[in-house]
Amino acid sequence: MTADFARLIEPRGVAVIGASDDPRKIGGQPMRFLTEFGYGGAVYPVNPRHSTIRGLRCYASAADLPQPCDVAVVAVPAAAVPQSIRDLGRAGVPHAIVLSAGFRELGERGMALQRELDDALRDTGIRIIGPNCQGVMNLRARAYLGFGHAFSNPSLQPGPVSMVTQSGGFGYSVVSAAQREGIGFSYVFSTGNEANISSLEMMAALIERPEVEVLVTYMEGLSDGRALLALGERALQLGKPILVWKVGNTAAGQRAVASHTANLTAGAELYRAAFERGGFVQIRDIDDLIDTLHAFLGGRLPKGNGVTILTTSGGAGVLMADRCEEAGLSLPLPSPASVEAIRAVAPDFAALGNPLDVTAHFSPAWKEYNQIIRTLLADPTVDLLMPRSIGGANADAWSAELVEILKETDKPVIVSQNEPPERIQSTIDRLRAAHVPLISTPARCAAAAGALSSFAARLRAHASRPPPAPREVPRVELDLPAEGGSLGEHRSKSIVAAYGIPVTREVLLSPAELGRLSSLPFAGPWAVKIESPDIPHKTEAGCVRLGIAGLLELKSAAREVEDNARRYVPHARIDGILVTEMARGTEVIVGAVVDPVFGPVVMFGLGGVAAELLRDVTHEFAPFDRATARAMIGRIRTAPLLTGYRGRPALDLDALADVLSRVSWLVADHAGRIAEIDLNPLFLGERGIVAADALVALAPGPASNAENRV
After folding, report:
1. Which of 357, 394, 468, 581 has the highest local Cβ count within 10 Å?
2. What angle do CA 674, 675, 679 make, to 5 degrees?
3. 6-294 — its CATH code?
């Protein structure tokens, strides 16, 4: 359920704490904006040194504020903020926007003041944006509740887009850039440190508003990955895209995040997995953002991923074709009927494929060009059409007729701009007024088409997704040691086996037992390994011997791995020698972690060299069923190697999916204790799967996990 932020978003009255007559001061800027830019609500300046500001009564304390006052803009020194919050609580003001800086973004220096602020918020129940934010805009109500250059523009116009940004300065520069391209924002929230209201909470509230058609977010990091997943799911339910610009994805970027907003940042691959699962569209630059907004604000989504390119330039067509395929789009050939109809009006030297190139000589024939557009829009092979624009003296007539043609279809059309804007401004204005996307450069057109197609495909998949299956794996209570750290292979295998995951047969023997050994309960060849919680990576320590065929060789190998273990970690705890059966098949790796942001997550990929060099892995958020696991398997690039590539036998993907689902339930059930699971390698055959090695790492906790149920 989303919080009720109606009074924050649409305030009937606004107080400015630390108000000033001087528009150069932070407390003076919102006073100017609220009194000059058309805000129709009440404005209450608060400053004990003034009796009036801008002709308005000035209150000595926030505690004296009248009602209705829904929001306070706090622009006082950081040390005065906690008391201001307490005063606002006494006045019954439910929300504040704290512009002041000097809290946890300073590290340890600001933490004492942060704790005072947290105490004041807890005691009063006030919900705040910030601190250390640039402010909030409601352009529909002309409420400019912030400071800075972007707020000083009274000509900003509202529109169907809203944004939540973790960088105020950068976010508001995006608003200004979009305005120049004819795109308006209804609401813009700069969330700052997010001490109280998170960016996810604001996005969840804004996406529910009917006037918001597209949501944009500039994101550095989050503390609740599961809330991000829920937001993505809700976006699909509503059919509203969330354009997400995620930064802080590299090591250098993550260091910058820590010094900028002190937000937690999880691995970039987990954010990508979350975005690909929900109603998110990732963007990487301002041009990318604006192009994608134009595409979505056209209000039409393709019913498939077939794109047809209509061009008057062969080079532009080839470039668009390349970029379309890179974006996962297909370029089907026009139907024979369409080809015949087009051939009747196109030049003899036109290339009637896809791209369909009528050449530059055809530009004056704008009526025939529109006839081709009409033919292609009626063609069932065309899901989305990308025509190149007509320029010169015919641009206005061509675009006017195009707008009429598009009233007859629900297929999306993205026009590739072919002229400098100053030469076709009236055409640009006409197409924008009709919500026809007009995008500069062929490559940018293709990227926008890819965004539309990807979102539409996710919507279709969401609509046809079956309801979640009932739990297929029963919960098992595990008796886990109280101390944290890695467990040995034998203990780790017993844990995963408790959840029905097949493991190799094995025996754990002491050196004395090995010396008396005359037979094993299973036939060789065997693998011989050291069993020690202090040596999780046994191969690197020289503590693994494979393909052991006889007892004498086995005893010799056991002495060798024990000696290597003591040299590698002299004080290692050695629980014995593990003798296991050898397994065969294709190596795969399955792992799980409890991420501090996203919670329990499962990873899958091919094992061996493929895992280390190709990094061809995929992630899913636990727990999940076998159907989800099958889809997860298909997402890796090397999946064909598992399904019968070039005559190879198909492997047992049902068994693999079962293991993935069981691992997901294991880590989800015991996320309070299990920190990591590593099954590497698992050997996958034509029938069956078996884990040849396992590692379970624990977080410290009680002696029995039954006391720590999730």
Report:
1. 357
2. 85
3. 3.40.50.720
